[in-house]
Amino acid sequence: MGILYLLALAVALTGMVVLDRRFGLFFWSDWRRATIVLAMGLVFFLAWDVAGIGLGIFFRGETDFMTGLQLAPELPLEELFFLTLLCYLTMNLYGFVSTRLGRAAS
Known about the structure:
Blueprint: H1 4-23, H2 31-54, E1 70-72, E2 75-76, H3 77-105
Antiparallel strand pairs: 1-2
Helix pairs in contact: 1-3, 2-3
């Protein structure tokens, strides 16, 4: 059971990749820009998490669905996958909305 959350995040990330490929939303639109934006988003949110952990605001939740592997104290491996999904979802949504608005304007 300890890998279910990570597996669910991996399935969701795979879905984001499939949607991106099908509609050319993010990486299939401009992979260089997409790589930079995704990396910057991950760095920002990881720094946010580390700051929150350092201030005693964020704590790792205990559940049987997580692997128990940690990148740092109070920072589980699943957080990296979740933040990647969050950034990728946001950029796919932005790509979708901007394409639709561009088509509607013309």
